[in-house]
Amino acid sequence: MSKIKFMFESSNIPLEMHKVRIVQKLNLLSVEDRLDAIDKAGNNTFLLRNNDVFLDMLTDSGVNAMSDNQLAAMMRADDSYAGSATFERLEKAVQKMFHKEFYLPAHQGRACENIIAQTFVKEGDITPMNYHFTTTKAHIVANGGTVVELIKDEGVIVESVLPFKGDMDIEKLESLFKQGTKIAFNRIEVGTNLIGGQPVSLKNMKEVAAVCKKYGVMNLLDASLLADNLYFIKIREEEYKDATIEEITKEISDCFDVIYFSGRKLGCARGGGIITSNKEFYDRMKNLVPLYEGFITYGGMSVREMEAMAIGLEETMDMDMISQGPQFIEYMVNELQKHDVPVVTPSGGLGCHLNAMEFVKHIPQDQFPSASLGSALYLISGIRGMERGTLSEEKNEDGSEHFANMELLRLALPRRVFTLSQVKYAIDRIKWLYDNRELIGGLRLYEEPEVMRFFLGKLEPVSSWQDKLVAKFKEDFGDSL
Ligand SMILES: Cc1ncc(COP(=O)(O)O)c(C=O)c1O
Question: Which of 134, 224, 455 for mutating ligand 1's site (highest number of atoms within 8 Å of CB)?
Fold first, then answer.
């Protein structure tokens, strides 16, 4: 990472180590049109049209900026169904990065999860993990398995100084293994998404690997958010401060039998894959690729994206590249904290996470505080975040709500996409919203899909709070958009 000192800037501001060469025009609707748009979207930010969004902070998935070298590589894609040279280049890049022998391509992260769950999860199996991810859990449950979260207790405390909140509780893991229950595999998710993009230490990964080895349990890594996690190991884990990113990646890889990733996050393209050196595991998973994804040399991906992913993975080894996201997020978190806005700390990867449980503490959990905050933020800024709270949870078997441990509004910062002034705009509007938080009210569902309702569910305000919020916005911002 390049060290650059400012002489006259009072706070430490992040500096982009890239320049912009292709731009996309943005559109900021008037507050009245935003009210109309969020109403049509059923107060679900997933259902907004992108043309109605000013800053799209929904996700970092498939929307990271590509480098000139990635775009150039796309031009030489070898478009053949079987045995494409593009696949060989991608396979080589994956093997070089993870030091493992076999690579199975798949069209995105959840496609890998489907293959892994179908291969290894049987009815009644338990799958311990540091923390669940929505699609991962859905695939395990669909195959008759159960997820057990073994994150350390401090991991779910929203405001903390713990540098690696994604760490697994080793004692809990060992005591689960000792019970002799049938375990499909153990799963570690780096850059743990649902608790605020929080990293896992390499020390913890090594301890987990040792316990898995002792009890003969397969150890699986979800490497989708590896780029951010690599940065944090380098910055926060004293033992690895002088190690190269390549060396850290190899040490991580050595801890796991099987690794999978969403290339929409890792590698800044659209795709994914599964990696292992275990020939038996590879053979068991291999036949599912042509069934669900496509032939074994493209796995449902476009060859252009595969070329871009090969370069993107190589570029992940560059500290300038992987530090941009976490540094921008840290800036945003620090600035919001100066105004007492409740956020997940320490700052993680992926995005800045507002703590809705505190921000709108007057909204009960059965009125979806994170979704309410997401609706309010869009209304007053055109910024689209993602609900990561009770709406993102599956309901209990008896149909009652399963209240989330954390109620978060995630504001993702896709890598190299936003400028600092756009981030400052977001900070400005969030501070205003915090000062006017009492005006925000709850939501109730009026259309509820049975699974993963956060994607397509529709909600309505429980009162006329949105009109009041719009009126206050106009009073304070005058004719500003
Ligand atoms: C940690 C993690 N695992 C798996 C996935 C699923 O990946 P995809 O969206 O490519 O299906 C995601 C996506 O957000 C993720 O964050």
Answer: 224
pLDDT by residue (tens digit) across 384-416?
999 999 999 989 989 999 999 899 999 999 999
Question: Span 31-60+323-477: which CATH code?
Answer: 3.90.1150.10
**369: number of CA atoms within 13 Å, CB side?**
21
The count of other CB atoms within 10 Å of the CB of residue 64 is 26
Contact 41, 47 (CB under 8 A): yes
- Nearest-angstrom CA–CA distance, 299 and 391: 32
Distance, CA of 247 to CA of 107 (rounded, Å): 28
Closest Cα to residue 107, out of 252, 288, 279?
Answer: 288
- Whether domain 68-315 has CATH 3.10.450.50: the reply is no
The reply to whether ligand 1 has any atom less than 6 angstroms from the CB of 229 is no
d(CA 298, CA 286): 13
Strand 351-355 and strand 272-276: the pairing is unpaired
Model pTM score: 0.95
